[in-house]
Design a protein that fits this description.
The chain is of the alpha/beta class. It is built from 13 helices and 15 strands.
Length: about 400
């Protein structure tokens, strides 16, 4: 489906790699709660595996530095579905020895003391927390999982979510966890309170997510589990990987800002007629900026996550649309999306069917795999022939 113009000039000889000019505030609790409600309300169960090399997604293998970028990233035509490599868990230590009791003040201001990490549940919307626990070396202590935690090492653990992302109190209690790590992206919240009433230490971590907070999440998880040094080491490794990938993306992107793609992030669920646009402070802005794109929604003052409207969409004139594979499938693919949102056809993205999709459990996960997500999307943005 991908059509490329003729080969362009060589990339700029020099380009100073850097993080986005200013750090965006990350995705807020209300926004993530809204996503969870929308997904649950649509009755859609996200894929149990977080590796998007299924279902036609393309996983790039060459280093970004080895790719030849297209001269104008606004010039290719067609849709692309990309995935991240099936990268195994790489624990910071093979012999973790938590220093317990560990007392922390969680993101809600609650003081929590953890005395036992032998049976851990780490639960959130995108499976980031469970992956962090495994990367800290405590994977053997994880007794269950949410539906978004599907990496091979955790796949045999029983689910404690139902109907997509609803926590099931009975399933959680049956596993007798000694500590629960979560945030406010899963519900019903009464289940979390029920676990506290049952005497289980529950640490609520910050739901604000972006490229910039991936390391903070690793650090906070390590502190809650009595592994502050390991959490700091994982945070450092995560941040280093993100910074290295950001530098490679910056070198791959055009040096001329006039040809950088204007990008928007759509969240769609066709079964329920849900069409939302993610704007400034939604988390998607952090991803778009990290990829070197122009955040078209932020430019027009679009805040957070709001229902899409034709006037706003046309005013943004995006060159490229980012979205989740589950959302694209729910509307019958690109043809169905253009039929349901005809205003898209009045934008360069719609005219050229320039859509880039990634698995629901990966694209906004902002955890240990953040660098891989950036890497995969950068290939589609700037070297689409490498993933066609």
């Amino acid at each position: 489906m991908l059509r490329l113009p003729g080969a362009g000039p060589d990339r700029a000889a020099t380009r100073t790699p850097s993080r986005p000019a200013r750090r965006r505030r990350a995705i807020g609790t209300a926004v993530l709660l809204a996503i969870a409600v929308l997904v649950a309300g649509c009755g859609l169960q996200l894929p149990s595996a977080g590796h998007a090399d299924d279902g036609g997604a393309v996983v790039g293998t060459e280093p970004l530095s080895a790719l030849e970028p297209i001269a104008d990233p606004r010039a290719w035509t067609g849709e692309i579905t990309v995935g991240t490599p099936d990268r195994p868990v790489d624990p910071i230590t093979d012999d973790p020895r938590p220093k317990l009791p560990a007392t922390v003040t969680d993101a809600q201001g609650t003081e929590v003391t953890v005395t036992d990490t032998s049976r851990i549940l780490a639960l959130d919307l995108y499976g980031s927390l469970s992956r962090i626990v495994f990367e800290l070396g405590l994977g053997d202590s994880v007794v269950g999982r949410d539906v978004s935690s599907g990496f091979p090492e955790i796949a045999d653990r029983p689910l404690v979510t139902s109907n997509g992302h609803e926590l099931t109190g009975e399933a959680i209690l049956d596993l007798a966890p000694t500590v629960i790590l979560t945030d406010t992206t899963l519900g019903p919240w009464d289940v979390v309170l029920q676990m506290r009433d049952a005497g289980i230490p529950v640490v609520v971590l910050d739901s604000h997510r972006s490229l910039e907070t991936s390391a903070d999440l690793a650090r906070a998880t390590g502190e809650a589990l009595g592994l502050p040094a390991e959490g700091a080491a994982l945070a450092e490794r995560t941040e280093a990987a993100v910074d290295d990938t950001l530098a490679q993306v910056a070198a791959l992107a055009p040096a001329d800002p006039a040809v950088l793609p204007r990008v928007i992030f759509l969240y769609v669920r066709g079964q329920s007629g849900v069409y939302y646009l993610f704007g400034d402070e939604s988390g998607a802005d952090s991803l778009i900026e990290g990829l070197g794109g122009v955040d078209a929604a932020a430019e027009v003052g679009w805040k957070g996550m709001r229902p899409l409207n034709d006037e706003g969409l046309i005013s943004m004139q995006p060159d490229l649309v980012l979205l989740m594979t589950g959302g694209l499938e729910s509307v019958g693919g690109v043809d169905g999306l253009l039929e349901q949102v005809p205003a898209l056809a009045q934008t360069p993205a719609g005219e050229n069917r320039r859509f880039v999709a990634m698995d629901d459990t990966e694209i906004l996960s902002f955890g240990p795999r953040s660098a891989d997500v950036l890497d995969a999307l950068a290939r589609a943005f700037y070297a689409p022939e490498s993933v066609s």
